[in-house]
Amino acid sequence: MTIEERINQANEKVMELFLNVSPFWTDVRPAIEVVPGMKRNLILHPGPPIDKDNIVFPLKNSISGAAVHEGLASNVEEAWSKVIAGEIEIAPAQDYRCGCAAAMVMSASMPVIVVEDRNGGGKGFSTPHPGPKPKVLRWGLYDDEVEQDLRAFRDVYCPALGKAVRASGGIDIKTILSKTAGMGDENHNRQPAGSMCLALTLAPYLLDTDADKQVIKDFLANDRFFLNPVMAAALAVIDSAKKIKDSTVMVAMAGNGEDFGIQVAGTGNKWYTTQAPYIDGTMLKPTYTKADMLRYMGDSCVTEVFGFGGMCAIAGPMYMKLTGSSFQEAIDRTEKARKVSLGEHTFAPVPWDNYRGQPVGIDVRKVVGYNVLPISHGGSGLKTGGQAGAGAAELPIDCFKKALVGVAESLGMVKEG
Amino acid sequence: MDCRKILELFNSELVVVSVGSPAFAKAIEDQGYQAIQVDWIPPAGGDRQMQELLKIMGRLS
Amino acid sequence: MAVFTKIEKNRYVDSLETLSMTADLNSQEGVEIGFASMVKASLKSDLEKNGMLTKEIANLEESDFVIVARCFTREAFDNAVCEILKEDKKQEKDKKSIYQDIEDAVKAHPEANLCQINVPGEYALEETTKALNAGLHCCVFSNNVPLEDEKKMKELAMEKGLLCMGPDCGVANINGAALVLASINNRGPFGICGASGTGIQHVAAILHECGSGVSQAIGTGGNDLKEPVGGIMMKMGIDALEADPETKYIILISRRPADSVLQILLKKIKACTKPVVVFFMGCTPKQIEENGGIFAANLDDCAQKALSLIGKTYELESPEGIHEKAMYAARNLSPRQKYLRGMYTGGTYMDEAMVAMQEIVGPIWSNAPLSPEYKLAESYKSIGNTCVDYGEEEFTLGRPHPAIDPSVRKAEIMREASDEEVAVIVLDCILTPPGHMDPVGDMVSEIRNAKELALGKGRDLVFIASVLGTDADLQNKSAQIEKFKRAGVIVCKTNNEASLLAAEIIRLQKERS
Hints:
The complex is a heterotrimer of chains A (417), B (61) and C (513).
Chain A: H1 3-19, E1 23-30, H2 31-34, E2 42-45, H3 57-69, H4 76-85, E3 89-92, E4 98-99, E5 111-117, E6 123-126, H5 144-168, E7 171-172, H6 173-179, H7 192-208, H8 213-221, H9 227-241, E8 250-256, E9 259-264, E10 272-275, E11 280-283, E12 297-298, H10 302-305, H11 317-322, H12 327-340, E13 341-344, E14 359-362, H13 364-370, E15 375-381, E16 387-394, H14 397-410
Parallel strand pairs in A: 2-3, 4-6
Antiparallel strand pairs in A: 1-5, 1-7, 5-6, 8-9, 8-12, 9-10, 11-16, 13-14, 15-16
Helix pairs in contact in A: 1-9, 3-4, 5-7, 13-14
Chain B: H1 4-10, E1 15-20, H2 22-30, E2 34-38, H3 48-57
Parallel strand pairs in B: 1-2
Chain C: E1 2-8, H1 15-26, E2 31-38, H2 41-49, H3 55-58, E3 65-71, H4 74-94, H5 102-108, E4 114-118, H6 124-133, E5 137-140, H7 147-160, E6 164-165, E7 171-174, E8 177-180, E9 190-194, H8 197-209, E10 214-219, H9 232-243, E11 249-254, H10 259-271, E12 276-280, H11 285-289, E13 294-295, H12 299-308, H13 319-329, E14 339-344, H14 347-361, E15 365-366, E16 386-389, H15 393-396, H16 407-418, E17 422-430, H17 439-456, E18 462-468, H18 477-486, E19 490-492, H19 495-512
């Protein structure tokens, strides 16, 4: 078999996994109980590996806050010095089948949404969305109030969710996506329909399991809730995809405020990084400027790997309007992704796009060969913590070129290093 | 030498795919014939190292 | 005044677009001098010459695009950039659909039957292969294509029974359409197959002028009749024209084919049932005639021989007529003026000119001479009697063909005119749909300035030109000829006549001294 044939065959296997994924939200449990490789003193962060000396403030704060929350240190300063010393370990969440949106981090006791891919057998994990409050660990903010919220989240809210989900026997994520197809969800930064549908699906079980009134109210009111189950669903199929050697399909992408990186199925957890781009769009407050912004940050774009978000911008034209973009650009973004993708989801067709589906399975060979760069949606963070705005960013070509070399090396084509 | 396809061309309406500068497609249209412009870009944006890798790893279809 | 830049990494813009963007840029208010271009070595050196090579640009790569200008203010620069990119975006919006590769285009347009390919030479094989595999006949304008690649694409074409005209095919007329840099011709009973673009164009134009025309003109590209390629396309062309009911007479035009290829072609000519007029530069009448072909000694003769098959002739100046014209043209020349300078955009025209001239004035120096010992050390430094082909690589690398971008040759007119030993400057002018819409108008002020310069120094300067084209071309051929005449240029009917006239003037000057 030629190298090209080997790669094509591997990619076909990955595409089979992606296109036949059967993701079910089955549980909510503390990370230490369900995430393979999780440790008491390990904190998972978004994006590629972080240079501790060059870490952006919101992530430093999140990590330190989580460490205090976890009881690993008594204050954030102590926490960070323990991180520097290596006593507290940090690692990219996506290397552990996990995803941390924005500046969120995952520590051992934090409950996580568990999604199982009943087709491929893989699993994915992500902490539930904290709700609409701006001052959250998710945006790199930590104080006593945030600590109290984290405790309530851990001890009351999430266990109630877990009970209800277990009672349901597992919620089919694909069904939610299918039912809400054509309802305008962009499914990375905007998912009100999916959240509402999920709420309707889970509500009976919350009632049956006698969940706290406040829990129900908080859950029903959160129109971004559906983000994390979809992230975990993506991670679940990626779990299986990462086992396929020789594949050039992108299976991870994320930023940590400084660096941006991707992974390809064929080389598993190897990150291919470059300087992260800025998100271009609208600011939450007119007083914010580009100088206040951090570069691309967060794992929520694992939804993009799964075909949603900017990759199928046409599905969510409202997001375009809200971020200062146009319907035509929604079409263009989607066509760009289609140009470099190997397949298309068919379970959630977009009616006004001739019922076409989400392009999925970005082949780095195509990105490099056609020199067509996919555009990802994303939220942006303030340097001081908190959300700056939302919009889109073109993915940097360097990552894809490095990834191509990486796969070439793994195939013995070029000398490593 | 089988000239069938060439004679077919001679007896058909000319429809030209033009790869490269749009000036040549325009010139065809200015004469009243149909031209389809292909905005060609070099593979991998002209990056030689990438072109070499892609030659082995996968010609783009 | 400061230098401003706008950089777009990894954005490809082809050379014709950058040419028009640069022209646009320099016409914007507040811009002293500007460039819009891919960041090639030639741009970097141009910028350096103008003191505009910033560190940022120096670090860019060939795949990056830059707009750089010296402007009065930042605002002026931003406005200028906005203007020229607005044009670019407007063009994009007007397009019906944007295809980035041949397969996409063919999928959307299955009725397509021919593919015109004009990509840099190193990519020609890949693109032509795609086109042939998609079932399209090809016309490949790209040059600097390795002979091995040419062989591969033509073998594939032959396998599929498709035409592969080129690489370096600058002229073809298929079904009445002028492809690449051809002129627009009327249809008629003559089928032409040639390795010389200008040659095809020249003969076709004369046929048109005499009320006849061309059924098909198949360009084989300049290298088809060399050994490695073996004449694949010329053979296919002959077969096709033999089989084509609309073609009554066949005309073949080329530089001298390689020996082995010539033998094969002569056999094919012998087997033709239709009359075949053959102009293979450097072949003997015997070779052609003993294989049943009609021998032509040069391009003009080729046209005459073809016309005689339908009982027509093309009126050309007699040797006496040329002599008289030369006497008159040389009347004000000083005895020190003893050289001619030919400035050509058509390579074949230059070859033809040199062959005609050297009979009369001896060997001619050139950047592509007839014998290697007369090669100019520097193409920008003429010696004695010199002819320069401005379509050669050193002038065209990264630039459009001089028929489209006449600026390179134009710039050298003054240089030749300032040499006080120059008596005559000869120019060709080629009309073609993608070409400059007013090529003569574009150079008249240079010509006038040159004449004035000479006059100022107490000497006359003779300009002679020929215009290749037809009255069906988009540029108004007669108006172009008029413009030349009004600028004091002697216009000859053909390039060969212009060459004979120029050479005769030099011969007369020699006699005087």
